[in-house]
Amino acid sequence: MTANITDGPEDDGRFAREVIDTGHYLVLATADAEGNPWPTPVWYARDAREFVWVSRPEARHSRNIEVRPRVGLTIFATPVPVEGRTHAVYADATAAEVPGTDRDRCLAVFDRRARAEGLGSWTVDRVVAPANLRLYRARVTQLFVLHPDRDVRRAVAIDL
């Protein structure tokens, strides 16, 4: 990580974007109907405050999203020394399987990053039946940054 931030929202935004844009996986925190937590790492792409990934609909986190769409996200810089120097972004979000009416747009976001990372092309036939994967998204409602030079996490209202 190269971001050095002070206390301004512009700096928080720059810091958050750097963590998010250099990350490959986010940890998706879901809960089932009884409130039992389940964290899952997912490879993601994003468009502004919307994060997109693919998962199997029968996966535990996908089933959890069906019953409790409120989720948490964590993206952190790796590798970092184990000296309390963590760079991380946390978010509250609402998640769901991407509806057919928005599938092309979200799939284009996912495909663009997949191609840029050398992961091949993603087309609609890979995320609709009879394929075993579906396209999901989380829309961020509140974003937090954890910077090693601060003792507190704080919500930041920034455009990603």
From TrEMBL:
SUPFAM superfamilies: FMN-binding split barrel
Keyword presence, Oxidoreductase: yes
Signal peptide, first to last residue: none
Keywords attached to this entry: Oxidoreductase
Domain Pyridoxamine 5'-phosphate oxidase N-terminal positions: 17-97
Coiled coil: none
Listed name of the protein: Pyridoxamine 5'-phosphate oxidase family protein
Originating species: Occultella gossypii
